[in-house]
Amino acid sequence: MTRTAVVTGASRGIGKAIFNRLSYEGWKTFNLDILVPEEHEGSWIATDLTNPVSISNAFEMLRENGPITGLVNNAGVALVDRLENSSLNDFERTMAINLRAPMLCAQEVLEDMKQEQFGRIVNIASRAMMGKTHRTAYGASKGGIAAMTRVWALELAEHGITVNTIAPGPIATEMFTHANPPDMPRTQEIIGTIPAGRLGSPDDIAQGVAFFMDERSGFINGQLLYICGGITLARGGS
Ligand code: NAP
After folding, report:
1. Is 138 a catalytic residue?
2. Full-model pTM
């Protein structure tokens, strides 16, 4: 049976790798993103995740394709600054995309998953939730999504739905390069703290997502997996 999954923010970066991997694994996959993708445009639904109406419109269109039993809340923004310079606008934008949108997307797929008595939800957090400078709103949003994961896992387990979190370490994407320009000594310092000796790739994250999304992973629920090259064990970028 072909199952349908939604990946948010799959036009580039980690989301794109997750989209490709789930498609390879046999999921019929849709991409909710504000950015026009370079490929798979047929599976893209233009969505502004800061806007609840845009989100509900996207799912209304999607439901014509049958029940949605997979959701990967991947899209996120990292607006980085020290506490004293953190603005209310940036805080609210971060929360809208990184925390509110995942809740709204999960609410949109609940009925389908309950009816099918099967569902897989994976939330993408970040190692930064353990503590990283310049990330007041980002860290809070990622700690929040990890907490929501555990709540949803408890509430939904009886319906055959699992909810898990992946917390990536530094992954080579546009987001990482924007927040950590390659020429900055600090960036080299971060790479130097990764026991694996390299940045992660989007495919490294897609590997973990595919594991949680697998039908055979039904007894793995409410868990948090760091995919970080071991950096969570090391000193890390403080
Ligand atoms: P990315 O390269 O910036 O990709 C994020 C995607 O989400 C982009 O296509 C972006 O579109 C889209 N998006 C942003 N705001 C949106 C909105 N309002 N509505 C719809 N789509 C929106 O990010 P990434 O590095 O792949 O990160 C993916 C996830 O992994 C995020 O949740 C991030 O926090 C997490 N993560 C990343 C790293 C890392 O090192 N890269 C580490 C830890 C966690 P635009 O380009 O138009 O904004």
Report:
1. yes
2. 0.96
